[in-house]
Design brief:
- By secondary structure, the protein is of the alpha/beta class.
- The protein has a single domain (3-240), classed as Vaccinia Virus protein VP39 (Rossmann fold), CATH 3.40.50.150.
- It contains 10 helices and 7 strands.
- A 7-stranded mixed β-sheet has the order 3-2-1-4-5-7-6, sandwiched between helices.
- Helix 2 runs antiparallel to helix 5, helix 6 (118-127) runs parallel beside helix 7 (145-154) and helix 7 (145-154) runs parallel beside helix 8.
- The chain starts with a helix and ends in a 6-residue tail after the last helix.
- The structure holds S-adenosyl-L-homocysteine, 3,4-dihydroxybenzoic acid and magnesium ion.
- Residues 39, 139, 165-166 line the site of magnesium ion.
- Magnesium ion is lined by residues 39, 139, 165-166.
C-alpha cells in the first residue's frame, strides 16, 4: 500500500461522506495562505471528531493545540447552543489565523481561544474553576503529552472522553530506542494510559491523506479523589499510619 492509494481512498470517502464546506475549506485555504504548517486533521478525521462529540453529547470541550482552528470548528459544530469549547494555542500567528477562521464560521461566541503555552494556560483554567470538560482533544507539542494527560485528568469527570492525535507516527511509536522527543512523549503518554486506573483506553491506527498515524481514546472511569489512597482510607474511617 502506498501513500498515493491512502490519499485516493481518503478522497473517495471524503467525496462521498464529507461534502465540500466553504467555511472549513476556507479555513484551510486561509491557514495555508498565512504559511501555517498543514498539521490539521484531515476532513474525514475532523468529521470523526464531530461524530464522537455528538455521540458523547458533549457540551464542554477542551482542545490543546488550535493551529488554524480547523479541528476546533469541527468540534464546535457538535455543540448545543449553550455549549462551549476552549482551545489552547501558544503561537500568536496561529491564534490570529484561527480567530479569523472561527469568526468566519460564525462560532466566535462558542469558541474561547487562550493564547499561551498550554502548560501555563491549563493551570489558569483550573484556578478559574473551568471544567470538568465532557471531551478533551490533545493535539499540540507531543513531548508534553504526558503533562497534558495529567491536566486532562484534573479537568475531567467520570465519563469524560480524552482523545489524542498522532500516537502512531508512521509506526515509529514502537521504537523504544527512538531519540525523537515526539516519539518518546507519545510512548510515555501511551504507557500512562495503560497504567492509569482512572481511565479505560485504546488506540487505533489510521491511514489516509495525512499518512500513517493514529488516535488514542480514553474514557475517564473515576475521579482523582475517588482513586486516591487518602479517600479510600477516609471512606473506611482509617487513619494514615
Ligand atoms: N488541532 C489542530 C492542529 C494542531 S497542530 C487541527 O487539527 O486543526 C499543533 C498546534 O499546537 C500548533 O498550532 C502549535 O503552535 C501548537 N502548540 C505547540 N506547542 C504548544 C504549547 N506548548 N502550548 C499550546 N500550543 C502549542
Ligand atoms: C504533524 C501532524 C499533526 O497532526 C500534528 O498535530 C502535529 C504535527 C506533522 O505532520 O508533523
Ligand atoms: Mg495532530
Amino acid at each position: 500500500m502506498t501513500q498515493q492509494q491512502w490519499t485516493a481512498v481518503d478522497r473517495y470517502i471524503t467525496d462521498l461522506l464529507v461534502p465540500p464546506d466553504p467555511v472549513l475549506d476556507g479555513a484551510l485555504t486561509a491557514s495555508d495562505a498565512a504559511g501555517l504548517p498543514p498539521h490539521n486533521v484531515s476532513p474525514n478525521q475532523g468529521k470523526l471528531l464531530l461524530l464522537l462529540a455528538q455521540i458523547h453529547q458533549a457540551r464542554t470541550i477542551l482542545e490543546i493545540g488550535t493551529l488554524g482552528g480547523y479541528s476546533t470548528i469541527w468540534l464546535a459544530r457538535s455543540l448545543p447552543s449553550d455549549g462551549c469549547i476552549i482551545t489552547l494555542e501558544a503561537n500568536p500567528k496561529h491564534a490570529e489565523v484561527a480567530l479569523a477562521n472561527i469568526a468566519r464560521a460564525g462560532l466566535a461566541d462558542v469558541v474561547k481561544l487562550r493564547l499561551g503555552r498550554a502548560l501555563d494556560t491549563l493551570p489558569q483554567l483550573a484556578a478559574e474553576g473551568h471544567g470538568p470538560f465532557d471531551l478533551i482533544f490533545i493535539d499540540a507539542d507531543k513531548p508534553s503529552n504526558p503533562d497534558y494527560f495529567l491536566w486532562a485528568l484534573k479537568l475531567s469527570r467520570p465519563g469524560t472522553l480524552i482523545i489524542a492525535d498522532n500516537v502512531v507516527r508512521q509506526g515509529a511509536v514502537i521504537d523504544a530506542t527512538s531519540e525523537d522527543p515526539n516519539v518518546q512523549g507519545i510512548r510515555r503518554f501511551n504507557e500512562m494510559l495503560a497504567a492509569e486506573p482512572r481511565v479505560s483506553a485504546t488506540a487505533i491506527q489510521t491511514v489516509g491523506s495525512k499518512g500513517y498515524d493514529g488516535f488514542a481514546m480514553a474514557i475517564v472511569t473515576a475521579t482523582e479523589s475517588e482513586g486516591s489512597t487518602f479517600d479510600k482510607l477516609y471512606e473506611k474511617n482509617m487513619t494514615l499510619a
